[in-house]
Write a structure and sequence with these properties.
Layout (H helix, E strand, L loop, with lengths): L1 H28 L5 H22 L9 H17 L8 H13 L9 H4 L3 H4 L6 H8 L1 H4 L7 H12 L5 H29 L8 H4 L2 H9 L4 H16 L3 H14 L7 H15 L3 H18 L5 H16 L7 H13 L4 H24 L5 H15 L9 H7 L6 H8 L16 H34 L1
Length: 468
């Protein structure tokens, strides 16, 4: 037994060392245009993570509880990326651009980067590193207005308020916030899992997930902070703190609009409690928290011009932008055969309507107690992603965080497969491969159907057992 324990520790140490090397290489030496090397390295991270995660779940010596080892491991892997330049996404450079405007009292919703670059003297502002940021963010971002909600803008402005001028140093500040958010997800997730009598080790599939570490800490995306707000809102609902739950959801919407899709599900859950207690106080407090928070966040920045620019830019995700889609690409192909041109202007809104109707249906099931809140929330975001015209890898963060609470493996599988979308990036052009797209989504849908079928079979068996 003692020898076996030492072997486990040795395996843990070796695989963790190899993981550190793998993350360092991807973060510091591999670009997204190096497709074969990037995918091989990513696959290697997953292969190394599997046995390491299995070993770390066993009791280890030196007096530390295993959750601390999980936490320290995740932090070390993230720290390896802090000093790297984001190599897989250009978004962080737009973040810093918006932050520079916001810090000087200029709304990032009123000017595109290309339109304001030559108006700095006229507006009485100075944009540090403006040329470098404009070039690094890419032409697509430079030609469009910002679509990042106000809470995000506050975070983007923080490095500028601190007087930090170097781009990489500004990125360090953003990464520290992202790492702190992931730590919050770690502890919130463990608490929610324990509340459901589930193994708290499941949170490792988020905290030690290669996609999460690379896309959030590595590339500077803030989906983890949004996940904090969602999980905190759920935990507060469980504790019947309806007002503060609504406030947390409102803050999440102020970070990114995605949590807005969860409002019907959470509202249905609270309404179900109202039905039980025969009082409307819970739903009144919850809605007050959400609306009050959104008012404080959005109203100070509202103007006719801001609304026009923001809605126009957000609408591009439904009527113009296309990347790594599934159902939409099938319908687009059918549209080409039928009409001879791209029907995205019709298909995108139609799929959005299907998503909305599906969310309301799931909310109804929560209200009637035919589905639990965790399954409905995960299902809502999953349906959105499957119907979306654009699915970047970091979009899977929310599905992954919620799927852990349901014991569904669809979020875990999606976080593995979505990285195949990086095969679209060449040295200059973005060209998606139907082969890789087909592999990604055939595997995903096959597993999803299997999981749904297996889940139904388990429910039917439970019903038979209960009635006998």
């Amino acid at each position: 037994m003692k020898a076996l324990r030492h072997n486990h520790i040795a395996l843990l140490a070796v695989t963790f060392l190899l993981l550190c090397i793998g993350y360092f290489l991807i973060g510091h030496h591999i670009s997204r245009s190096q497709t074969n090397i990037l995918l091989s390295a990513y696959a290697g991270l997953w292969l190394l993570s599997w046995p390491w995660l299995r070993v770390v779940s066993a009791p280890l010596d030196k007096g530390l509880t295993s959750w601390k080892k999980d936490l320290y491991a995740g932090l070390i892997l993230r720290i390896l990326l802090i000093f790297s330049w984001p190599s897989l996404s250009q978004d962080v450079y737009r973040f810093l651009w918006d932050g520079a405007l916001f810090a000087q009292g200029i709304s990032p919703y009123l000017y595109t980067p290309n339109s304001i670059i030559n108006q700095q003297e006229l507006l009485g502002i100075t944009l540090p590193n403006s040329g470098a940021l404009l070039s690094a963010m890419g032409s697509l971002s430079a030609n469009n207005f910002s679509n990042y909600p106000p809470i995000k803008q506050l975070i983007f402005a923080l490095p500028h308020w601190l007087g930090i001028r170097g781009i990489i140093a500004q990125i360090w500040v953003l990464r520290i916030i992202i790492i702190l958010a992931d730590m919050a997800v770690f502890f919130l997730g463990r608490r929610l899992l324990l509340n459901r009598s589930l193994n708290p080790k499941y949170i490792n599939w988020y905290f030690l997930n290669p996609l999460i570490i690379l896309e959030l800490t590595g590339n500077g995306h803030f989906e983890g902070l949004m996940a904090v707000c969602i999980l905190a809102s759920i935990l507060l609902l469980e504790r019947k703190k309806y007002l503060t739950s609504g406030i947390m959801l409102g803050i999440g919407i102020g970070l990114k609009l995605i949590p807005l899709m969860l409002l019907p599900v959470l509202g249905a859950f609270v309404a179900g409690r109202c039905k039980k207690s025969q009082t409307i106080k819970p739903i009144r407090l919850f809605i007050t928290g959400v609306i009050g928070t959104l008012g404080l966040i959005f109203l100070p920045m509202l103007s006719a011009e801001t609304i026009a620019h923001y809605t126009a830019t957000t609408g591009l995700w439904f009527t113009k932008f296309e990347f790594n889609a599934s159902i939409y690409y099938v319908l687009r192909w059918i549209g080409f055969q039928w009409k001879g041109y791209n029907l995205i202007a019709q298909i995108g809104p139609a799929l959005s309507l299907i998503t909305a109707l599906s969310i309301f249906y799931l909310s109804y099931r929560v209200w009637t107690q035919k589905s639990n809140i965790y399954q409905a929330m995960m299902g809502s975001i999953l349906i959105y992603l499957l119907c979306a015209t654009t699915v970047h890898p970091w979009y899977w963060t929310t599905v992954l965080a919620l799927s852990i609470l349901t014991q569904s493996r669809i979020g875990l599988l999606g976080s593995m497969l979505v990285f195949l979308s990086y095969t679209a990036y060449g040295e200059e052009l973005v060209q998606e491969s139907w082969l890789w797209l087909s592999l990604e989504y055939l595997l995903l849908f096959a597993y999803l159907f299997w999981e749904l079928k297996n889940s139904k079979a388990q429910k039917d068996q439970w019903a038979k057992t209960s009635s006998s």
